Amino acid sequence: MPMTPTLPNLERFPRLRLGGLPTDLEPMPRLSANLGGPRLWVKRDDLAGLGGGNKARPLEYLMADAQARGARRVVTFAGSGQSNHLRATAMAARRLGIEPILVVFDAPPAEAVQGNALITRVLDARVLYLGWLGKADPNRTIEASIRLMAMLATTYPPLTGRHRYVIPVGCFSPLGALGYAAAAAELTAQADTLGIALDYVVTAAGTGATAAGLLAGFRALGRPTRVIAIDVGRLWKNLAASIVGLANRTLRLLDLPAPLTLSDLGFYANFVGTGYGEPTRAGLDALRQAARTEGLMLEPVYTAKALAGLVALCRAGHFQPSHNIVFLHTGGAPALYAYRDFLQS
Length: 345
Ligand SMILES: Cc1ncc(COP(=O)(O)O)c(C=O)c1O
Prior knowledge:
Largest sheet: 6 strands, mixed
Helix content: 25-40%
Strand content: 5-15%
Distance between the termini: 48 Å
Mean pLDDT: 95
Bound molecules: pyridoxal-5'-phosphate
């Protein structure tokens, strides 16, 4: 029996069970054959808790911290009312009897709400649309944006008040990143049980918190698995450096050495297309390919672009046929229905 890999010092941090973990690791033999190798797998975090997707794991740690601090309101931020992060945070808050306050840097939707925005309405989360503040500024680093948002939460009257817990955009913090550091251990245990080497994990990157957690996790475990982040939105300046920086801060939070540099991360920004939330031809092709070969549903904003990146890397001969590559399915299904016009063929 292989030893269960454990992340040093992780048990020091309180954690709530919100994610329905572990999620399955499934082979994708037909997609692999279509691409002529390598061996592709999918980690089904789309089936994680809180409506699915990659926010359940970080929220297990962040909401435990909120609860420990006696929070009665949780405030978080996103660029769009269609955000998976807002929906998952609001679900977690309701589950714990905490009031969710969601700040959107966009105007209120002109059309009938749907997808995640509809779910947050049913949850009766308070949503503040601050379109006047502008969308994410690609000339600003994510760290600078998070500082601005934190300042907003302490000065903007509807957000101030006691017993309030602020969760950064995308759960981008060392505590949030522990969720995917722990996922690295979960994946490693699954690979060990299957008797395979885990060569690469490929994930979509919006804020990069997920990629940072994975990067920190594999380093903390002393495993050579490489993390590839596919930028889906070019939302922030120096995203790769932010990911590596957050991974190092996460290692420090675990009282471990933090030696990661840019060369430790695979990072691709050439699958974004025209911008965040704008579907790409390659992404829609990848989405259909995953659906038609593996019965796996992606969505155009995150996972389709990430798989388009993986497909392009396979076609470019980036991997060896014997490599095991895990595609992290980060969820996002509710947004699919907002893109019906792109998907009707
Ligand atoms: C479905 C989905 N995939 C990927 C991401 C990107 O995750 P991260 O912000 O951790 O890079 C998000 C972020 O909201 C998401 O909703």
